[in-house]
Amino acid sequence: MAKPAKSQFVCQACGALSQRWAGKCVACGDWNTIVEEQAGPAAMPGSGLTKSAKGRAARLETLTGATDEAPRIRTGNGELDRVTGGGIVPGSAILIGGEPGIGKSTLLLQLAAGLASAGRRAVYFSGEEATAQVRMRAERLGLAKAPVALAAETNLANILATLAKGPHADLVIVDSIQTLWAEAIESAPGTVAQVRAATQSLIRYAKQAGSALILVGHVTKEGQIAGPKVVEHMVDTVLYFEGDSGHAYRLLRAVKNRFGPADEIGVFEMVELGLREVTNPSELFLGDRDASAPGAAVFAGMEGTRPLLVEIQALVAPSALGTPRRAAVGWDGNRLSMLLAVLEARAGVSFGHHDVYLNVAGGLRITEPAADLAAAAALLSSLSGQPLPVDRIHFGEISLSGAVRAAAHMPARLKEAQKLGFKSVLMPAAGEIETRGLKLSLSRITHLKSLADGGGACD
């Protein structure tokens, strides 16, 4: 006879277990996140969780031998195929997160409709909206005639029974994982136990049936996917849908991918008929440039394997405050403070009596250190009032000594700049590149002082 279920105290932020309730989680430090949950019935013999269970020896292999590349399901969306590494792998599990209203459901409905229209079976389980609401969205997007199998269901057992009873599904979408609940677990939907159990059961089905599984996850106020971190380890791919409500552009970023490169991005534009893929995002982020205004520098960055040109804008204004303001949008504020300190200590340019604002155009967020040189050029240009050459790009990392260090993937950055009509490049002196076929004027510098002496307009 199974032992009665025991209660346990679980942190809803990190999943750590506690012997008793406490106001603060010892593992992650968050307050008021510990909730009492039922541990569930004891495991039965033969389940692998009891001492009486007997296992069998696994077959060991070597690292040598032929391996076949994983098959792919082409989605028909070039940007989505790029982010997933060339298409969705059957039997894989994908977790996609993003802020409310960013367009997750719209993207997945377009994906399901595209695959269903191509002859594949797509099943869409909606846990947050009724089927009538999903139909209204499909009608607005012009997808009402697509043969998508739709159901509004949150019971995990009913979802698994539906998938087992019907024909084989090539794609299964669950929107969202925080709404599912299992009867065997006595806790509310969205808790750590429910999310972990639902994810594990759905992934097991996907692996056995060979169906591609896409789970939608809510995000916290910090932008991370809500729930235990173990969910991100369980799935094969983790995608974040990013964007700003003030812009029509959306970025789909891969932060984990077992079947392709991580940190790859896809760019979409929100239009009346849904999300439209943007094949040349560099032209998108540079479309509204004001060439005559000082404080604007074009940065040649890399997002995954894709070169991307984006404008970095700076505003340096006299401050009436005792402590001048420092604000950065789309860039790390600590890196901005470090760059200002290097400019003052190594190049003799002081911003101590000025407010400094830095912005990345288009709502893009840059984490690459190679953006240092473009940010420094924009700051110096705004301080001096001299606009930078309109046909010049910048890239290079700046160290605390003021030295300009080489950046990775320099040939790809230069080819992208030449393709978009730029004529000159300000780049680090270190690093070898192949100049054959390049029609760019290269200005290579070793120290930040060379840039500061020219007010940002170094030749």
Describe this structure as you would to a colleague:
The protein is an alpha/beta fold and 459 residues long. Helix content is 25%, strand content 25%. The chain is globular, with a radius of gyration of 26 Å. The longest helix has 18 residues, at 192-209. The strands form four sheets. A nine-stranded mixed β-sheet has the order 6-5-7-8-4-9-10-11-12. β10 and β11 (265-271) form a beta hairpin. The protein has helices spanning 78-84, 104-117, 131-140, 156-165, 192-209, 230-234, 281-285, 333-347, 372-384, 410-419, 448-453; strands spanning 7-11, 17-18, 34-38, 93-98, 122-126, 149-152, 171-175, 212-217, 237-243, 249-257, 265-271, 274-277, 296-303, 306-318, 326-329, 354-360, 392-394, 397-398, 404-405, 424-428, 441-445. The protein has three domains: 7-38; 78-279, P-loop containing nucleotide triphosphate hydrolases (Rossmann fold); 284-453, Ribosomal Protein S5, domain 2 (2-Layer Sandwich).
Q: Helical stretch count?
A: 11
Mean pLDDT rating: 87
Helix content: 10-25%
CATH class of the largest domain: Alpha Beta
| Architecture (CATH level 2) name of the largest domain | 3-Layer(aba) Sandwich
Count of DSSP strands: 21
Name the structural class. alpha/beta
CATH topology of the largest domain: Rossmann fold
**How many distinct domains?**
3
